[in-house]
Design a protein that fits this description.
Helix 9 packs antiparallel against helix 19 (391-408) and helix 10 packs parallel to helix 17. The protein has helices at 2-7, 10-13, 17-31, 33-43, 49-71, 83-94, 99-118, 122-128, 131-153, 172-189, 195-209, 232-235, 243-271, 282-299, 310-315, 321-333, 346-361, 372-388, 391-408, 417-434; strands at 77-79, 156-159, 163-166, 304-306. Helix content is 67%, strand content 3%. The chain is mostly helical. It has a two-stranded antiparallel ribbon with strand order 1-4. It is built from 20 helices and 4 strands. A hairpin with a 3-residue loop joins strand 2 and strand 3. The protein has one domain (2-434).
């Protein structure tokens, strides 16, 4: 036990096993909603919900345990909200690409991410894309997720006169979703640990009481089979054979790459891990996510990401990798609770999507709105995602306009060569998707 304490630097971090285990449990409960939300989102793309549930739990467990043992950070990893929406609603539903091909695209992006982590060239790529555009991508995904939540809740609906409008607020299912939104907002405002998860539980209970949600037949069972999704990504690697699909791979990579890096840096700063403005063992931490993404693609789930909910565990004292190991082990135990998938309806998950959207939109404050040449492409990314119902289209609009506005203000030399290349690629991408 002393060797374990020494390896995980208990003395330097002023922590102990009890604190770390409680922190790991807190982080797990705060993240647990993804076990039920991810199958719902990917299920919309035609994937088997049971298989996605199992893949989500296993990929999260493997990546989070690796994060704890190798990188030694109290950070949980699981399939990310936003990129799963891009997978389901933009790629599969929007572009009409089969989910089998899309999951192969995730695997290709994961392998590239793995190589970038191995050869430590992450910093080079991060530096080439302007900070404001990276921030805009995160904020835009937040807007898109919130919009999805409002639509799933029935609060926003299609309107022939104005494209979108207020939905039927008197419908019982919409009222249930509104209840969930209000309860979750209140819990979040009061800084209640695991607010999103508690909000989902309370909404489900109320739905059952009023007969809007069917009671589950059982609480515990063996984990659903992975057969419908396992290895599909490998079998369909040959499908990645067009510019459109390579753009999809690139978008998976960009979104996951910067979301993970930004979240990890934010959490490391909050916990006081940063030294000389650098995150120690950053390579190992990114490797954990790359492994999670690769494993997840093979098992059958969308890209993984570091979870900001890990801050809940840090808030109760989690500082070492033991916290993450605890979270990872709990994801394995969670495999027993798949029957609860039947009670997680769109009305139950809608509040979680809206709240995560609010949290991600907080990135807006860091964009340089005073410089129009930067503000305009950033704005197009943010507003483009929900209005085009596509994360990739939003990114394309901003990345195409950015070199133009920079050249117009005689700052062409400040634009990295990669940005000119991406502008041309995204221009071709939009042309191809229109024809």
């Amino acid at each position: 036990m002393d060797n374990i304490r020494e390896y995980f630097q208990f003395k330097e971090l002023n922590t102990n096993f009890r604190t770390e285990i409680v922190a790991g449990l807190t982080t797990f409960v705060s993240m647990a909603y993804i076990l039920f939300l991810n199958p719902t989102v990917l299920g919309a793309a035609g994937m088997d919900k049971g298989a996605v549930f199992t893949a989500t739990a296993l990929a999260s467990a493997i990546a989070t345990i690796f994060m704890g043992v190798v990188a030694r950070y109290p950070i949980g990893i699981a399939p990310g909200l936003g990129v799963n929406a891009f997978f389901a609603y933009s790629v599969v539903i929007g572009m009409g690409i089969p989910w089998e091909t899309a999951i192969a695209g995730v695997l290709v992006a994961a392998l590239i991410f793995l190589l970038l982590s191995l050869f430590k060239i992450r910093e080079i790529i991060i530096d080439m894309i302007p900070e404001d555009l990276k921030i805009a991508i995160a904020a835009g995904i937040g807007m898109f997720i919130a919009f999805l939540g409002l639509v799933n809740a029935g609060i926003i609906a299609k309107n022939d006169a104005t494209l979108v409008g207020i939905g039927s607020l008197g419908a019982p299912t919409t009222l249930l979703a509104i209840f969930g939104v209000i309860v979750t907002f209140v819990l979040m405002a009061r800084k209640t640990p695991a607010a999103i998860f508690i909000g989902m539980i309370l909404t489900t209970i109320v739905g059952m009481v009023f007969g809007l949600i069917d009671m589950p037949h059982q609480l515990i069972s063996t984990a659903p089979s992975l057969e419908p999704t396992f290895g599909v990504a490998i079998a369909h690697l040959g499908d990645i054979n067009s510019l459109q699909l390579w753009i999809v791979v690139l978008t998976f990579l960009i979104v996951t790459f910067f979301d993970t890096a930004g979240t990890m840096i934010g959490l490391a700063t909050q916990a006081g891990f940063m030294k000389d403005n650098k995150m120690p063992r950053a390579g190992s931490a990114l490797m954990a996510d790359a492994i999670g993404m690769t494993t997840g693609a093979v098992l059958g789930t969308s890209p993984t990401s570091a979870y900001v909910e890990s801050s809940a565990g840090m808030a109760v004292g989690g500082r070492s990798g033991i916290s993450a190991v605890t979270t990872g082990v709990l994801f394995i135990f969670a495999l027993l609770f798949s029957p609860l998938l039947t009670v997680v309806t769109p009305e139950v998950t809608a509040p979680a999507l809206i709240v995560v959207g609010v949290l991600m939109a907080s990135n807006l404050r860091d964009i340089n709105w005073d410089d129009f040449a930067i503000a305009a492409p950033a704005f197009l990314i943010i507003i483009g995602m929900p209005l085009t119902y596509s994360i990739s289209d939003g990114i394309a609009l901003g990345f195409i306009v950015y070199p133009i506005t920079m050249m117009a203000t005689k700052r062409a030399k400040q634009v990295q060569p990669l940005m000119y290349v991406l502008a041309i690629i995204f221009l071709l991408f939009l042309y191809l998707t229109m024809h």
